[in-house]
Amino acid sequence: MGFLRDFHNKTILFRVGDWIIVTYGVIAGIAFLIGLTTTTWYMSMLGQDPAVMAAMFLFFVIPSILMVSRLTSIMLEWRELFRKPMQTLLKPGYMLHGGIFGGMMAMFGYSMATGLSMPALFDAAGFAMPLGEAICRLGCYVYGCCWGKPTGNNFGVSYTSVHSKVVRFRPDLHGVKIHPTQIYALTAHLIQFTIFYALLPYKLFDGMFAALYLITHPLIRVALETFRQDDRGKVGSWTHTHIYSLMMIVMGLGMLAYGLSSAGTNIAINVQFRFIHTLTWGPAIPYFIFTFIAACAAFGVHYKAVGSWISKPSGGVTPQVDELSMGAAGRVDGLTDDDCCDHQH
Length: 345
Description:
By secondary structure, the protein is mainly alpha-helical.
């Protein structure tokens, strides 16, 4: 019980010389594995070969997710990219919304090239995303990113690990009880997936789950903004989360309108094809294993200090303003530009 109560401070899983394996990496590997197998399962229920789908998602969709999420993370720190380009490029960081849009672009391209139903592909991703995201939020919890505001309620948690992102970014929050917003998100996304799962036999049109995801995910994220404190920047009075959320809702409503129109299709879904059937599909298993290993490496390997791939961009755990994005440092209460530091996982 003591280990579980202090799980959020287990930032580092183990070390191998100068190489650090963070706990977040293993959890991200599990999240990508579950995400891949669940999207493959959904397409299998529509009659597609699990091995073909697993290969497509592994070699086509996942690379696009990683590249675009990485690119958008860098773009979010454009000020520091011009000031210290190598430092900005060589520190870990991926952006969720960028990954969502990257995955959609890859599936659009694959649909155009093969003729496979684009709404069905979007559905597979929309159906699986809440489950994968819930697991990833557990990784955020142990890494110390996406942290919450100080609180006096019994649900609050205190970060004391000097390697956690919240302590590196906000040393003044060391030992301070804050909202476990990552656990709030985990709970919300598990409920979201449970509802999607219950709706499987009642699919009305191809694209239904994608539309529901694009509409409900932003509602969850905006609600959580009330409790979160990791300021990544604003455009006027809008946070970047508000902007991306609005874009997602507009796309979701568009998919909803198209699916309900006469132009929409509805491929029959075989709910008798279970998840375990996909998980044990022999030709697909190597793709699942490789996905887990690749995600663990992409999200879990740091060098010399947590928050670095190659060198120590912040001198270890010393706070540095150059690790902030979009001028967020200037809005952190109680800290000067010289007192602020970064995140990124």
